[in-house]
Amino acid sequence: MTPALVVVGAGPRGTGVLERIAANLAEVYGDHPLDVHLVDPHPPGGGRIWRHDQSPLLWMNSHAEDVTLFTDDTVEMAGPVTPGPDLAAWAAAYRASTLPPPAVAAGPELDAEIRGLAPDGFASRRLQSAYLGWVHARVRATLPPQVTVHEHRRAAVRVEGAPDGLQRVWPAGSDTPLTADAVLLTLGHLDTGPDAGQRALTAFAARHGLTHLPPAYTADSDLGALAPGAPVLVRGLGLAFVDLMVLVTEGRGGRYTTGADGRLVYHPSGAEPVLYAGSRRGVPYRSKIGYGWQGDPPPLPRFLTAEVVDALHAAAGPGGPDFARDLWPLIDKELGWAHYHRLFTTRPGAARIAWDDFAEKYAAAAPLSEELRTLVATAVPDPADRLDLAALDRPLAGAVHPDPAALQAALRAHIAADLDRRHDPAHSPDLAVFLGLLSVYGQLLRLGDSGQDWHGFFSYLASGPPGPRLRRLAALSEAGIVHLLGPGTVFTADEESGLFRAASPAVPGYHVEARVLVEARLPDAAAVRSADPLPRGLLDDGAATGPGGLLRVDPADGRLLGPGGLPHPRRFALGPHTDARGAGAFTRPRTNSSSFRQNDATARALLALLRGTGERVPVPVPSPSRGTHVPDR
Known about the structure:
alpha/beta, FAD/NAD(P)-binding domain, 5-stranded parallel sheet, 6-stranded mixed sheet, 19 strands, 35% helix, 3 domains
């Protein structure tokens, strides 16, 4: 009987593992026959999140040159490198007619976008879908004839089978399961059920005839309840908010022109709701940096190294290190190191002492100490040249305005200043801090769950929207379509009025009421509250959960762990629903991506199991000299 592998989820992560299976096949499995079953209701390659069937107005959040699904010689793995083009190089090859057009590029709109895509441009998600579909087709074409791939355009609803026996995967609506020697779950981003707070808000909305839209992927949300001209409260100013903003403005017929002063002007269609948006910070994520790196990068990591993280983890025991006590001081010092290395290198006149002298004293000073603050104040006289993470994180904290109009003006000024700075190479220490953030993220991945507080801080500074999105936001504020409520916004369900309410201390005494509340954030990855019956069924069968309700897996090869920490011999899982979450399924080229390392180790373990050796393949430890990257989704 031909060995069989069932892969549940044929999106970018499933495609990445399939690529590693193709690369490792000859060495680990040989020329034996193999059946691979791909179970996914969405087209392979893009999957649900990156499917072609979504608005062309929705963009990626990474530069085209920073997106690849192919390994390179920086990836520390046991398998061979199989190079391939990143998104920008793929588009260039398409323009040069050295690649056939993607199957989904049937119309002139997508064709024109491919032809106009620059390396530092931002592709639409539909264009990314075309790239991912091409990658999937290319991987399939590299498989030898003895490997047969079967597609099942359905969801998988449960997995059954004893650990030492064949597994049965049940597609939705099918009376016949797929029989497998091994199962790999690459489920991607899942919907989750509401927590207690969200359930209370939904119940409040039902009692009073209101609308509450819980966290969701904005492209899948039903925005029909956002009526033209009606006030809508929006909680969150991250990337989900940006998608919402686009869909209810340009997506409803609004348009932009450039005014005589060079600023964008928004022309409403009349179909837009009026958005009142707030968050803890009260400001949108920082703009993507609009220039490339020149010169030598900062020597990273310097203080938060792999050895330091491993030592902290070992000393802390099962609960892991405390973020605020053990990790944040080192993060602060690491990011400062990146910032000052660049400042001293590119603007020596900004410092009173030489870099070598500063670096020696900086390294010797304790993190967050008075000694370190005194050193920086003495060496860098202009406060504007010093790195202040607290001010970056909460730029408008404590500011009070006399009325909402004054607040809007202050917020537009903040956005304009951020855009100017993030697109000016004279402020390249900001880019050095970005590289420092990537380095820190790569080290924290060694701990499995890097902590929600850190992830939010990282996303705010390093994974913000493209500059054009923020320019549009400022124009929408000028047009009165979007009102930013300020930092510390509190959203409540007011039983007395029967309405949702939002208020910020930025304008004392001011509040807004509305019949609609939108949670502009993505669902969390908790398997314990997943709306998908498959991960819930795994938990019922004894799969272990870790922090945040994530499925626990063996970091060596992605095998699912049981309650006693024992790895399941035939079930594997990779992705955001597990506690071995790495960078995104695709990543920046030449960054030793943790996801690519995971994909290779899991592919080799699967092939060894299917071949009958059951060999365990360790995941190589990342080089301390390389970082990683987390794309937008």
